[in-house]
Amino acid sequence: MPSQPPLPPLLAPYVSSLPDASLTLVSSILGATSNWLVLRFLHAALSSQPTSTFGADDLPNGTKKKVVLVSFLRSYEFWKTEAKRLGLDLARLTERHEFAFVDGLSELFYAPQATAAPTSSPGLGSSPRTTLPLRSPPGAVLGRAPQPAAPTGPPGNTAPKQAEPGIAKKLHFSGRGLASLDAMEKDVASVMEQQKTHMEEGDELILILDQPDLLLATTGPSMGIGATEMAEWITGLQQHAHATVLTLATDAPLIHNSSGLGQLATPIETEHAALAIGLAHRARSVMQLRTLETGAAKDVSGVLRISRGGGLSTENNLEEREALYFIQRDGGVTVFGRGES
Amino acid sequence: MAPVNLSHRRTHNLLLISKLLSLRDTASPLTLVLDSLEQPATPLLKEYIRRAKLSKVHVTLIAFETLKQPERVDAFVTTRRKSSAEIAKEVSAVYQAVASSNPSRRRLILIDSINPLLHSRRADPGFHLPSFLGSFLAPTSPSAKVDTSLVVTYHQDVPEPPQKSPYASSPLSLLTYLATSIITLHSFSHILAQKAARDRSLAPPVFGLEEEQEGVLLGRLDKLTGTGAAEGIVIELEHRRKSGRGVLEWYLLPPASRYSPQHLKEIVTLLDDSILYNPPMERDPGAENEEPTSTFELGLTDKQRRDREGVVLPYFDAQSGNGPGEGGRILYDMGEEDDFDEEEDEI
């Protein structure tokens, strides 16, 4: 579309060449969301035409990339529309087995009954937002816990899943503690393994986890899930993928309340901070999004800071930098240094 | 710091860190490394591995957060979904396999992050931190004596969950109590910035999470990479000797790109020896500034100074004189460079 390329040149090296077994952490706050950056990761991996002008680093044309996107806060419709604005047709890419979407939003806490599934699924698909607040009080969850064994739920639900085009799998949370995470891990891993069957030698599978902190926030220590369990869950998924991109909220209350001397931090504050900081210690790179310190501006949407994480395994030669970004009305993004335009 | 003189510290403390990092004489069986996002322990762990490989020490990495086996690590133990007892068993098993072929009988066990273990919500009633760590260090059988060094990394900035029992001590204080050496890591550029502020009596700046700025996890930005000046990590070491005496010292570990992996000589220096941290004093401030600039040579050479000191001034001579009239003579020893002027003598 527009005057600027879909992938800003400044950003290209950071989103297009992800080394093996690396974790990229994208942190966002309420005023500076990470959707646009996730879309840039998608574009860098999936866009068919080699970005010739500036993409000197994606020269090995042979390595095709495949993406599995697991989204906990946004629906497939959202990603499809937004990707279209970048020139990516997710429906077509799904058919070509280059892209798979795992829905962690619409039925995460909806216990599917085998009989009710056909009638309920269209309604859910069209209005995913109505299901999100269905965060039941603990009493109700306990009541539901003995209901379906987690692994049996999804297979019984195969038919309606196929009915909804584009969504490879819907995640369900049932039970508590590690067992429930294990079931979800199995679901995501099965999608990834399925993608791998369509891969050739040398292809790379990239896993994007969009805001898995929702899972921690909605369950928490009372259900046997804490930062360690979440981190282990992510490690398990990482083992199936070539590289992993993960977005996480780092709003001040979620990070800083637990570090103060007040000792009044709530479990979610402690666990979220432990998860976010722990992941930053593991990550190869941390891309932090925040708003301008000086307030809102007409031509700047926020600040992107790219730093090296503390990861041990990979040789880390990432160049750290800080830049400003601006999201235009048409969805195009420009990234530029301070003082440039 | 100044009282304990620098050269004494230079010899003793450099020897100490060299011994600790190279795992000689099992100077420290349990080393606790406290790191933060601003200065991760990665470079230090790599340095440990590098030195261990040079002296053929068997390296085991217990991975709580590392996904893939890093290079030069002999054994890699993943911990996902394992109880502490299983981890301990596996760690001893990997060494049993090579124990016969490994002549050095020294081994290094690294734990890349102890936090997940301490945070775990899993009911692990048998978990007891001291005995878990002790199980690595204690010899498995009295005959096979193995010198084991354990290096445990603890991320300081990860918040701790509330204690299960209000009377129990926190895991961190337990760790600091158990450890024979405690290494706290700082970023060199931050140390420099804080020192510069302190020198001007300003409040030292804070970085990263401590800034408490929304959306900032890491403050580190290597603006200084280009100059290469302030790279490296600062090691704050607290070592407890067997006698009970503690040693406190600050060191500087240069970045790995500055030396080859095979480098044998000690690369760690005292922080006080760093030119950037302790810039050399200007020699005799003021002495040089007093001299006015001119085209004449106003100074004296050594010989001139000696000669001048040798001159006996007339009033000294007069005091030792033998009476009036004797004083006031012109006392002059002719030097060899003097040109005797006869006319002048006649006067």
TrEMBL record, chain A:
Disordered, as annotated region: 116-163
Gene3D superfamilies: P-loop containing nucleotide triphosphate hydrolases
Annotated signal peptide: none
GO biological process: tRNA wobble uridine modification
GO cellular component: elongator holoenzyme complex
Pathway per the UniProt entry: tRNA modification; 5-methoxycarbonylmethyl-2-thiouridine-tRNA biosynthesis
InterPro entries membership: ELP6, P-loop_NTPase
PANTHER family per the UniProt record, alphabetical: ELONGATOR COMPLEX PROTEIN 6
Family: Belongs to the ELP6 family.
Full protein name: Elongator complex protein 6
Species this protein is from: Penicillium olsonii
Automatic annotation (TrEMBL), chain B:
Composition bias, Acidic residues: 334-347
Pathway(s) where this gene product acts: tRNA modification; 5-methoxycarbonylmethyl-2-thiouridine-tRNA biosynthesis
Entry GO CC: cytosol; elongator holoenzyme complex; nucleus
Gene3D superfamilies, A to Z: P-loop containing nucleotide triphosphate hydrolases
Pfam family, one: Elong_Iki1
Biased composition (Basic and acidic residues): 300-310
Subcellular location: Cytoplasm; Nucleus
Region: Disordered, residue numbers: 279-347
Predominant subcellular localization, coarse grouping: cytoplasm
Keyword Oxidoreductase: no
UniProt keyword annotation of Transmembrane present: no
UniProt keyword terms in alphabetical order: Cytoplasm, Nucleus, tRNA processing
Segments crossing the lipid bilayer: none
Molecular-function GO terms, alphabetical: tRNA binding
GO-annotated biological processes: tRNA wobble uridine modification
Family: Belongs to the ELP5 family.
Protein name per its UniProtKB record: Elongator complex protein 5
